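In response to a reviewer's request, we include the raw inputs and outputs for one of the modeled complexes. The two entities were modeled together in a single run.
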Amino acid sequence: MTMTVQSPDFDSLAVGDVVDERVFAVTRDSLVRYAGASGDFNPIHYRDDVARAVGLPGVLAHGMLTMGLAVQPVVDWAVDPARILDYQTRFTRPVVVDPELGAIVTVIAKIGQLDAEARVARVDLTVTFREETVLGKAQVRVQL
Amino acid sequence: MNPELQGRTFPPTEPYLVGREKVREFADAVFATNPANRDVEAAVALGYPDLVAPPTFAVVIQERALATLLAEPDTGIDFERVVHGDQRFVTTRPIVAGDELTATLTVSSVKTLGGHSMVSADTRVTDAAGEHVVTAISTLVVRGED
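The model returned the following structure tokens for the whole complex.
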């Protein structure tokens, strides 16, 4: 079977290139789904009363849900998931998920650094909610 | 928090068998769109024996290892006050359906800054052959009393 989609060509990349941009509509349903899939049943991710009681502005998305979805444009770009060598982030701001409106999370993936010897591209993710970044130093190292 | 936790390695978790439908369920949950996460034929075409899990799937295994840490009676960690500070996955190969994975957690550092404590842990995930698959590195922040 021939793959119709090719992995990116390292030599054609430049720092600053936009790999992809994507918008995710995260709803309370998404949080319940992620809780079940991941096994993280912390009630601050689905109960308004508990979130309020611990001083949060509302029910929050799991940081790991935001991290998990933010890398998806890079996984598609890489084609073969084995090219993802390293993925890291800091959780800097919460994503508050409104029960009716949900939360819109925007991801911009850009080439941050190119290691020509190792043929590794560092893809930097800018992940935004309500015009503020929610992940810090979100970086994916991709072997090409 | 108990500073003597630093350097402690916990016993390996029970082996976790990665199911094909679990991979699909997790892929749905993180909005994954790579065909190798859902379509066995697409995964096989890339040279894998079965569906490939998304890059953050190891969190499922890490969660189990962290539960062992948080359940220790002498940690001094108040679970209600724990927030996730940072996370990293250093990958040797992707997790694939059919893998039987074991996790070994080591506490790499314990720090107190202001009223907050931070505990960093490395969860080394290996397959049934004992080969390294991925290391999940996590920092938990325990917020101080208000």
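As requested, we also summarize the result in words. Chain A touches chain B through 36 residues (CB under 8 Å). The beta strands of chain A are 18-26, 84-91, 103-115, 120-129, 132-133, 135-143.
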